[in-house]
Amino acid sequence: MYLVMSCNRTPLNIDEVALSNGTKSKAHFNAANNASDLLCGTNGDVPNQAFEKNLSAFSRQALLSNTYCIKIVFYIVRDNNGVGGFNAADIPTIMRNLNDAYNPHNIFLYHVGVEYINNSTYVDLDVNANNNEFPGLISSKSSSNAINFYLVNSIFSSQGSYAGMAENIPSRNLVVANQSALSTTSAHEVGHCLNLFHTHRGPGEGGCAEAPNGSNCSSCGDYVCDTPADPGLGSGNVDFSTCTYIGGNGFYPAVNNIMSYAAWCRDRFTNGQATRLLAALAGSSVLQPIINTNCNIPTISGPNTVCNATLFSLNNVPANTSVSWDASPGGLVTLSNQSTNGVTVQQNSGQSGSIVLRARINYADGNRINITKIVELPGADVPLVSLNPSSMQCMTMGSNRYFYAGDNSSGSFQNISNNPNVAEVDWQILDYSTSPATSITNFQKYSNTVINSSISLTMPNRSSDYVITIVPRLKHKCGAWGEWGPGHSYFIKRNCASSFNALDVSYNSSDRRHKLSFSESYREVEKAIFSSPNMKSKLSNNFDIHVYDSSNKEVFSKKSARDTSILLPRLSTGTYSIELLKNGYIYRQSLEVK
């Protein structure tokens, strides 16, 4: 049996036309208002062709960088005498809307023709299971090497009227009702042709419903795990004034997904859907003929990070085109010297983050494609840098240890690679077995996301126990090095029985408070480091204490303290991190409160 599935329910008095500039229009209100339901007739009860399942992680990443050009032919269906039919002057608008949806995922659509079918039989297309005219329409005129996009006055069956439908999933053929062609229905039906199911696919479409928590996302619903479970969207559970879901019941569907039912809120695909689209284009024999292997897509060249006024160039610009530039989100940069071949980007004062720089290439025939590049905007500051391991530790001579640079801006050790301002880490290691201290340079640097964010060091053998200090500094992505430190100190001994803490912690059971004081181990380290006259001048009695709970929330701090002991407030049961900053070095240790 041929199943007809609902998508694009259009409540009265709401127009689903999403113009290419992002604004909403009432131009088609009267037409939409005449139909109580605009449905999608694509049959979801078909086998899942999961071309993406066989991809390795490497192949998946390579796939996402591929660019595909798709050919599309429009067929305007009119009466026998050539009267009526879709206005061909609006086809460039369909193309612009399609490219706005698909270009962010490296899929570009080009129409290679507009043809007419003068046959009154197909003007109002009957798709009832026992009288399905869609195959006859395809047979009357079609191209074997393009998506065939048919435009008819209406599509109907005994179950209702339809906005559009694809012949299959995947497929090279789709049909859209004239009044819905300028809406997201067109991108929706092309999505079916390129192997996407409805986000709400379930038992009514020959599948199983996706659980609200997504636990069965790879085998139910639309088979895409980054599209949240969708109970089916429409006028009863979506606030279309804000495009938010109001249905509850544990669901959090993506109202903006093009393959959903929230017709005029739809404007994007997820990364998982993009992977499925690209995998189908790479692996489906049905889709291979529609791919244009000779297209030369323009590219934006320029740095990935903007520090000053920076020129970005647009390469391979087609002849007889115009180019407009924009950046989103707005307000972060200023664009100047805009031309067909490039644009200058200047980071606005006090702004940081990332932008999507976009070149909109407008063709003489009305088509438009969008070329984008993600550009990072570093903040002004290089963060404080910390080390892991961060507490005073005993390390055995001759042993090999790893040290990692981290971001200490919020008081807890974080991966420095997550900070958008940092480009590189530099290291300074001093050996205090000599006087004055000597530099250790024979350590191995490892490249991570941030260059040299970790090192491997073998502890030199000496005749007696000694202390080393390791101090890192960070390089801003715009070129300037930050200050050294704070660093850390470590005991190097012939044999290590245990780790050492900078602070001794005692507990007074009567008032249930902990007291912190400097340990004898810390005194030894301080004596070793600051024994030389040069270092002694930097010795200070001032220090900072910070205490964080298990969620990294600061529960106590005291800055520029001079007392030899610190009383902490009463602490509830849990694990805490104590941080001491003194004389340019930072030490951490844990405290378990039972």
Automatic annotation (TrEMBL):
Xref: InterPro entries: MetalloPept_cat_dom_sf (IPR024079), Peptidase_M43 (IPR008754), PKD_6 (IPR045829)
Organism for this UniProt entry: Sphingobacterium ginsenosidimutans
Pfam families xref list: Peptidase_M43, PKD_6
Domain Peptidase M43 pregnancy-associated plasma-A: 179-281
Taxonomic superkingdom: Bacteria
Domain PKD-like: from-to ranges: 298-360
Coiled coil: none
Signal peptide start-end: none
Protein name from the UniProt record: Peptidase M43 pregnancy-associated plasma-A domain-containing protein
